[in-house]
């Protein structure tokens, strides 16, 4: 068996960013996909709390900083190419800024239409303020 690098290879990512998948530590359900740069990676390692890079805001995104819906990291894995990160997390509250447990709350039908398959846990207006734009990755 060949040993892969122990840390992610950020040089393989676009603009130094690698995809980071957050997965529920208990159920295994995929909660979200976000992006990490070396700074987000280091902060995640140091704090044990998921930290990402927000492409839309151009800065670190400490998951739950605004909403309180934090992710405590229980395990970190990297794929065989060291260019994708998998975080096993204990999620507090909704992972999705739309108020759902997972960002993957819609199913797509054979005609291409979408159906909401999950129940909303929280109203985003209550979390982020009425009429405000919910944070995006």
Brief sketch in words of this structure:
The chain has 137 residues and is mostly beta strands.
Describe this structure in words.
By secondary structure, the protein is mainly beta. The chain has one domain: Phosphoribosyl-AMP cyclohydrolase (Ubiquitin-like (UB roll)). The protein is built from 2 helices and 8 strands. It has a 4-stranded mixed β-sheet. A two-stranded antiparallel ribbon has the order 3-4. β5 (71-78) and β6 form a beta hairpin. The chain is globular. It starts with 17 loop residues before the first strand and ends in a 9-residue tail after the last helix. It holds the Pfam family PRA-CH. Zn(2+) binds at residues 80, 96, 103. Belongs to the PRA-CH family.
Number of helices, where a helix is a run of at least 4 consecutive DSSP H or I residues = 2
Highest CATH level, the class: Alpha Beta
Q: What can be said about the biggest beta sheet?
A: 4 strands, mixed
The number of E-state strands comes to 8
Quote the average pLDDT.
Answer: 91
Rough outline:
globular
Strand and helix order: EEHEEEEEEH
Strand content: 25-35%
Query: What number of structural domains do the residues give?
Result: 1
Write out the strand line-up for the largest beta sheet, numbering strands in chain order.
2-1-6-5
- CATH topology heading: Ubiquitin-like (UB roll)
Query: What low-confidence regions span 5 or more consecutive residues with pLDDT below 50?
Result: none
- Measured between the Cα atoms of the first and last residue, the distance is 36 Å
Tell me which CATH architecture applies here: Roll
CATH-assigned homologous superfamily: Phosphoribosyl-AMP cyclohydrolase
Binding site for Mg(2+): 79, 81, 83
Subcellular location: Cytoplasm
EC number: 3.5.4.19
Subunit structure: Homodimer.
């Amino acid at each position: 068996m060949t040993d892969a690098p122990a840390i992610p290879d950020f040089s393989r990512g676009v603009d130094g960013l690698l995809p980071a998948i957050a997965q529920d530590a208990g159920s295994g359900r995929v909660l979200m996909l976000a992006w990490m740069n070396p700074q987000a990676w280091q902060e995640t390692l140091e704090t044990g709390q998921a930290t990402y890079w927000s492409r839309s805001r151009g800065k670190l995104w400490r998951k739950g900083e605004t909403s309180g819906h934090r992710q405590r990291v229980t395990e970190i894995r990297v794929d065989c190419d060291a260019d994708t990160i998998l975080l096993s997390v204990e999620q507090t509250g909704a992972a999705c800024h739309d108020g759902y447990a997972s960002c993957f709350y819609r199913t797509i039908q054979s005609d291409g239409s979408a159906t909401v398959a999950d129940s909303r846990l929280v109203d985003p207006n209550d979390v982020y303020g009425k009429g405000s734009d919910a944070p995006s990755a």
